[in-house]
Amino acid sequence: MGTMTAGAVGTATSRDRVRQVTVLVGAVVAIVGATIGSGAFGGQPIAQAADGALSATATPVAPDSPAFSIWSVIYTGLAVFAVVQALPRHAADRRLRAVAWWVLATMLLNALWIGVVQAGSVGASVLVIAVLLAVLAAVYVKLVRLEHTSALPSVVTDVTMGLYTGWVGVATLANTAAFLADAEVGELGLGATGWSVVLVSLAAVLAVAYAFYGRRRPTVVVPVGLAMAWGLLWIGLGRTTGELVDETAARAAFVAATLALLAPVVATSTTRHP
Which residues span the membrane (predicted)? Predict the structure, then answer.
């Protein structure tokens, strides 16, 4: 993981205290709101919102239902992050200073995405998740570039944001496919199967790009690969049984999942880490 660098922690300021409290409170609001909005405590589940446009059988690149259990891990990680960054001894942690506001933004965007879907706007959901993916990518770049500080905030931040970034990468492609299907734009020459192969191939390319860009930081890049492999695996499994069987899309998803899983291993094992 690397050792703590000189000057990684400075002197806490009033701005640090404001950031800590705001991120903690904002995280509670965002996580609770997202959990309620997703139907976890009753109400309409996301799979049933927007006339089922985002259900597990809406398109050939929709992950099967068990895939979404990863959200419980991500939400737990975000909650732990919010608490850890709020601890007094981490107030002046330079890495947390650089990413904490951005992490809060991702939580609020995720809650907004759920609200938009519940309102029935699949088109708007694509815009929101695209912005979410961009913000997560910015956080990813920061985490790769910034040296680790103390162990606890570094590991919690890296693992949580790695899983979050990887999963949203797959979800963005699935959300895009759902929008195109909902908009009834037709199969655009390639057919549903052809576009499914294109989309899961793009996911594989994204996974490889993440892996080699972040090869200096195994604690963040490996979770990215795990989350992307998880999502792609459940796309493949979802196409082998159930209402929407597509063997070609399934095979492509399984190959993409394997690449997503192996790319971080190959990238980090061939790189010297600080």
Answer: 21-47, 67-87, 99-116, 122-141, 162-181, 193-213, 220-237, 249-267
